[in-house]
């Protein structure tokens, strides 16, 4: 199995505070990797380092075959990113947003055209191509934002709480998009607070106080802890936290 | 280049879809020029003069001659005659008169005149006093010449000529000032807000994760505001020439080149502010407090730098608008060639380089 993300001793300190403390894990190609943890556990900080948005204090990380410290530009070309906060331009039309981001990732013009049509078709957005993004319902926006994040066929896509505030039906549809991307070989690295979503992941890591406390498939985790639901797994692990927000 | 043009297009969309903002950006210079050109003026339009003469005064004829001379002036008019100085105070308080001439005759053929001026607005009072003094001096000299025709008295006759702005119009002074203000407002304020908005909405993060180089993004932000500023520059110059009749003696190319330099500096300042503040509100306060107020007060736009205390004069040296306005006055009104404003150009270039380097350094440190 090809390894797409490889993290060794990744640490980020702010003064004496260790936001992320010696992380070690590997993620394989096409895997859906859930990154869980209570607020303030260090998820976002870790993810920002993997995306090249912040520099590790020590340790190393390779993403899509490139070291995040030595080759951040190469890493950036091979990843997609969607954040919990809305990540498209409100005052641009649906189609303009797609084209802008396609352009940013250097997709050649003729290709942008055909792929944009295909995407609009797939999302049933053909009617809305000229709608301002701000006029779309939240669930639609998130689906569009995700599609834009994987538009350039990255090796890894990072999703930071992508479904916050979205209703269960739309969330389910959103996950269908994620499965589809994973089936195409795109590795999905996702943080979430919804335990039903955690069940959809191939493997889960649970962060507590900057460290990974548990890492396994949802089924294995439940069995190991001897509980019936992910909710309980989360609560049992999160209870170990000594940090307060 | 493909990426860059995609970004520039995006920025234009942002600006032109916000109808109210674009309207303000394009109409504001017109309003300001009209306001400063016509409505706000420190020139005296009208002086109402009262003559205070006691009924028994023997020099009545010469006083009346003086009154006719004053009245003949297009700005002055003699509106009231009083026999006692007591009436002056009340009339001035009611706003009926601006100036009173009080005549006294202590001994025969020794007429004394005292000028009382309403000095609530000292600028106007000073102008009025110069104006009327000139009329009186002229009158007296002519009288003297008439009476002493026979004796060969040589009088020094000053002939004053106002150069470059013969009518002493304040619009000449304000137009460069308004330009200094408007470019700061549009370039600095709008650029900083537009960059900080991306940070606030979270789109900046997406761009930073993408392979696009920050420098593309930044320059793409500057392009539309540069274009809008150029439109404004054209509007202002046209209005100044056709509406305010400012002669534009200097070369238009020099004026434009200097303005481009100043616009570029303003854009860099906007970038610098955006790297320091975290919210749009902070960007606005930073631009207004940090730039607009110094531009209005310390640039020489309204208050001459030369009249400021020594310490404050030193402070004005770091206000970019001061150098721009000073150079623009020389270029537009005195009509000097661009080599005469090389000091100003050097200072503005130096400031641009410094601000831009600092901004880039800050921008990188944020990651």
Describe the structure in your own words:
The complex is a heterodimer of chains A (245) and B (367). Chain A has 245 residues and is an alpha/beta fold. Chain A has nine helices and ten strands. Chain A has one domain (29-55, 73-238): Rossmann fold, CATH 3.40.50.300. Chain A is 37% helix and 26% strand. The model of chain A has no long low-confidence stretch (mean pLDDT 90). Chain B has 367 residues and is an alpha/beta fold. Chain B has 13 helices and four strands. In chain B, strand 1 (47-52), helix 3 (60-72) and strand 2 form a beta-alpha-beta unit. The two termini of chain B are 24 Å apart. Chain B folds into two domains: 47-147, Periplasmic binding protein-like II (D-Maltodextrin-Binding Protein, domain 2, 3-Layer(aba) Sandwich); 169-365, no CATH class. In chain B, helix 1 crosses helix 8 (214-242) and helix 8 crosses helix 9.
In the residues of chain A, how many domains can be counted?
Answer: 1
Percent in helix of chain A = 25-40%
- Give the percentage of residues in beta strands of chain A: 25-35%
Largest protein interface, residues of each chain = A-B, 30 and 21 residues
Helix amount of chain B: 55-70%
* CATH domain class of chain A: Alpha Beta
CATH superfamily of chain A: P-loop containing nucleotide triphosphate hydrolases
Mean pLDDT of chain B comes to 85
Q: Regions of chain A with pLDDT < 50 over 5+ consecutive residues?
A: none
Shape of chain B: elongated
Query: What's the story with the biggest beta sheet of chain A?
Result: 6 strands, mixed
Our count of helices of chain A gives: 9
Shape of chain A: globular
Order of helices and strands of chain B: HHEHEHEEHHHHHHHHH
Residue stretches of chain B low in confidence (pLDDT < 50, at least 5 long) are none
Derived structural class of chain B: alpha/beta
Instruction: Supply Rg of chain A.
Output: 18 Å
- For the record, give the distance between the C-alpha atoms at the N and C termini of chain A, rounded to a whole number: 38 Å
């Amino acid at each position: 199995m090809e390894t797409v993300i490889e993290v060794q001793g990744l640490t980020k300190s702010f003064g004496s505070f260790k936001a992320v403390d010696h992380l070690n894990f590997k993620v394989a190609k096409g895997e859906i990797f859930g990154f869980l943890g209570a607020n303030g556990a260090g998820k976002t900080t870790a993810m920002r380092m993997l995306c090249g948005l912040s520099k590790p204090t020590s340790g190393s990380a390779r993403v899509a075959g490139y070291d995040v410290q030595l080759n951040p530009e190469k890493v950036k070309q091979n990843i997609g990113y969607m954040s919990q906060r809305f990540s498209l331009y409100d005052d641009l039309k649906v189609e303009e947003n797609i084209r802008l981001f396609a352009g940013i990732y250097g997709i050649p013009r003729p290709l942008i055209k055909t792929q944009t049509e295909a995407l609009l078709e797939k999302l049933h957005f053909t009617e809305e191509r000229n709608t301002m993004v701000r006029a779309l319902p939240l669930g639609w926006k998130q689906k569009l934002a995700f599609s834009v994040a994987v538009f350039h066929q990255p090796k890894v896509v990072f999703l930071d709480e992508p479904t916050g505030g979205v209703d269960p039906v739309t969330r389910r549809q959103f996950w269908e998009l994620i499965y589809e991307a994973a089936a195409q070989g795109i590795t999905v690295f996702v943080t979430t607070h919804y335990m039903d979503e955690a069940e959809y992941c191939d493997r889960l890591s649970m962060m507590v106080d900057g460290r990974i406390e548990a890492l396994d498939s949802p089924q294995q985790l439940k069995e190991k802890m001897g509980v019936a639901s992910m909710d309980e797994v989360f609560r049992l692990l999160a209870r170990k936290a000594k940090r307060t927000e | 280049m493909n990426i860059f043009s995609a970004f520039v297009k995006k920025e234009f969309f942002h600006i032109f879809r916000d109808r109210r903002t674009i309207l303000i950006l394009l109409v504001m210079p017109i309003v300001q020029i009209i306001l400063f050109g016509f409505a706000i003026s420190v020139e005296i339009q009208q002086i109402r003069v009262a003559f205070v003469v006691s009924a028994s005064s023997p020099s009545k004829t010469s006083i009346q001659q003086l009154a006719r001379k004053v009245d003949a002036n297009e700005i002055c008019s003699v509106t009231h005659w009083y026999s006692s100085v007591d009436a002056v105070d009340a009339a001035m308080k009611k706003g009926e008169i601006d100036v009173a001439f009080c005549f006294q005759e202590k001994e025969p053929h020794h007429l004394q005149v005292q000028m009382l001026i309403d000095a609530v607005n000292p600028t106007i009072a000073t102008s009025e006093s110069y104006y009327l003094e000139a009329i009186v001096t002229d009158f007296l000299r002519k009288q003297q010449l008439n009476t002493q025709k026979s004796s060969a008295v040589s009088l020094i006759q000053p002939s004053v000529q106002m150069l470059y702005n013969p009518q002493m119009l304040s619009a000449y002074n304000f137009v460069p000032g308004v330009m200094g203000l408007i470019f700061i407002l549009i370039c600095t304020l709008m650029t900083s807000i537009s960059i900080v908005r991306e940070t606030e909405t979270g789109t900046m993060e997406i761009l930073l994760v993408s392979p696009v180089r920050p420098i593309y993004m930044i320059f793409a932000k500057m392009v539309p505001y540069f274009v809008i500023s150029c439109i404004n520059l054209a509007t202002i110059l046209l209005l100044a020439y056709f509406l305010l009749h400012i002669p534009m003696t200097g070369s238009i190319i020099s004026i434009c080149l200097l303005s481009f330099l100043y616009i570029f500096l303003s854009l860099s300042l906007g970038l610098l502010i955006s790297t320091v503040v975290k919210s749009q509100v902070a960007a606005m306060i930073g631009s207004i407090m940090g730039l607009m107020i110094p531009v209005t007060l310390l640039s020489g736009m309204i208050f001459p730098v030369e009249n400021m205390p020594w310490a404050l004069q030193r402070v004005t040296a770091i206000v970019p608008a001061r150098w721009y306005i000073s150079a623009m006055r020389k270029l537009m009104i005195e009509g000097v060639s661009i080599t005469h404003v090389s000091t100003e150009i050097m200072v503005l270039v130096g400031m641009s380089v410094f601000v831009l380097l600092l901004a880039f350094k800050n921008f990188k440190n944020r990651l």
